[in-house]
Amino acid sequence: MNKINQLEGRVADEARLPVPPYVCVRAQARASTSSPASSATQPVDDTAPMLLALDLGTTLGWAVRLSGQAMSGTERFKVGRFEGGGMRYLRFVRWLDDLCRFAGLPATVYFEEVRRHKGVDAAHVYGGFLAQLTAWCERHAVPYQGVPVGTIKKFATGKGNANKTAMIEAAKHWGHEPADDNEADALALLHWAAAQEQAHV
Questions:
Q1: How far apart are CA 133 and CA 89, in angstroms?
Q2: Tens digit of pLDDT for each residue in 122-152?
Q3: In terms of CB atoms within 10 Å, which of 49, 54, 86, 99 comes out highest?
Q4: Is the pTM of this model over 0.70?
Q5: Which CATH superfamily is domain 2-199 in?
Q6: Where is 12: in which H helix or E strand?
Q7: Long-range contacts made by residues 121-127, C-beta under 8 angstroms, separation at least 24?
Q8: Contact 77, 93 (CB under 8 A)
Q9: What is d(CA 62, CA 141) in angstroms, rounded to the nearest whole number?
Q10: Low-confidence residues in the chain, pLDDT < 50
């Protein structure tokens, strides 16, 4: 009996551990609600599989459905003055590994599929992140899916060409407080993914 009590105590202590700082600088957890006013896509089932949604880029927006809660934030992968261009991708892969050590492997990874970029450099950076992400998913046997930007924006706001402010407002409507449009886009993608999951139940 004492051993059981000690085990329960350790489990309770671990359950109260904060989100590690290396997972996200601005992590935000939002408790799920069963209020009729909440969005139909709000995660409410603590047995639902873990989902990871990413807005790929130097300032990366991310959102995770974990244990019935939506957690989100941003991570910066800017290359330092004396670093090679590949360092951002090494840090990105390490971030993915750290996230999974904390939360476990996701059931599915969703990412914002960008078809047009403002410049060549932006296209190259996005392609690098995408290559690292898909290779990481293949290595860990995690399914992944790209979702067009217009599809995400239309789901969140009703307009496929919604601006950054509209996306942030949509995330706030769901009960989140995104730090910027990158985090808002990742949250919208997470809600889209959850809605697709419910539609196929």
A1: 9
A2: 888 999 999 999 999 999 999 999 999 999 9
A3: 54
A4: yes
A5: Ribonuclease H-like superfamily/Ribonuclease H (3.30.420.10)
A6: helix 2-15
A7: 125/57, 125/58, 125/88, 126/56, 126/57
A8: no
A9: 20
A10: 1, 3-44
